[in-house]
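Justification of resources, computational component.

The compute hours requested in this renewal are based largely on the per-chain cost of generating structure records like the one below. Each record pairs the submitted sequence with a full structure-token output. That output is archived, and it is also reused by downstream analysis tasks.
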Amino acid sequence: MKEILTRNIGYKIASLALAAVLWLIIINVDDPVKTAMVTNVPVNVLHAEDLDALNKVYDIVEGNTVSVTIKGKRSIVYQITASDLVVTADITNQNAFNKVDIDVSCPKFDYAELEFSTNPGMLTVVMDEKAEQNFKVTVEQSGTPSEGYYVMEASAKPNMVNVTGAESVVNEIAEIRAKVEVSGASQDFTSEQLALSAYNSKGELIESNRLKYNVENVRVDVHIVKTKSVPVQFTITKEPKNGYQITQMEKAPAEIELAGESKTLKKISKVEIPIDASEMTKTDELEFDLNEYIPEGVVVVSQNSTAVVKFTIEASGNKTFDISANKIKRINIPDGMKVSIDSDSQVQIIVSGLSKDLEKLTSVSNLDLYIDLEQAKEGDNLIEIKSGIDTDKYKISFSVSKVLVKLTKNSLTEDDSSEPVEETPSSSQPSTPAQSPATPGEAVDNSKEQNETEQPE
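The structure output for this chain reads:
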């Protein structure tokens, strides 16, 4: 038996060695060494509690998550996921450059020969004093309610939270927000478990994993109301002072959209803006905050809540003309009637308008004065004086608005129906603004404010 085992011992040993080599070759061919990468693996910071005693906190600048490259047998590395890896950094081993070594292990395959490397290769942190501060929670809306509806109010509960973290980071916080989705909403609703986020004064999200809130989530109650479009009306409460006139007024917007409780909106038919133009002497533009002209509890939904009015203002004045009543043109004289008007009866006419338009009135004939006798009867008649002047450009008033006209039957021996002669004024300079039209029989006071008076020839 011994001879059998020891016979050709050299060949037997060589065979075993060759078999081992072949086995290694086969294993390496079938299961070669490979590398694989696992991304977004979180880094666990160790011994952070040791900083609390020093009233210190840290903030990770780089390395909060890492990509891990694994080198080992293909059969192993291709099975490893992020949850299989334990990536740690001992904060107490921070070097002079604020960096901490990152260690990687894989307990699931601790029997395997594996090599690990990370990117970034080290955790970069900053150390700071610990600080805390209270902030009001601002609700940020995402989306748009249904057409015709508006988010009147969105309130968080609790609406005040305490934030703890690095002093430099806490001091940077300008606002704590909770975002609520309101798309398609048409009635009140409540959203639960909304996360909190910190923002700086520029509205930028503060990315800090070391901020701690005394509450993890908040609840938000949303109040939805209806909207209504109403016209915007601009009313001139005081006209420009004497010598000036508004010739054009451009205004915007024509209407605005309001939001509020239904019973309040029903009472609103328009938004009226009073305008005092008494001090305006030139073309000007005024702006009005529409929120100042709507009831309490109502808000402007329109993107722009400012109304703009542009005035074109030009110089104005008046001209005065005098004419004998019997020189006023007569029309529609009844057949067979003779017209008699007292030749001593004088009528003063005051015309007001823009200075450039008044310059065109060179004589009383430009006023196209007349009396219409179509309804007159035999005997005495009070007939209203009329004018064919352009009332869009001019305002006209008379010292007496009616004249006494006597109609008598005509005869061959009496003829007093000759055509009246129009009076030509002696001057045509603009004067002070026009006086109000007088009532029948009422005389106009020709004060010194009137620059020139037109006299008949």
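Helices lie at 2-6, 9-30, 74-77, 167-170, 262-265, 355-358. Residues 89 and 227 are 56 Å apart (CA to CA).
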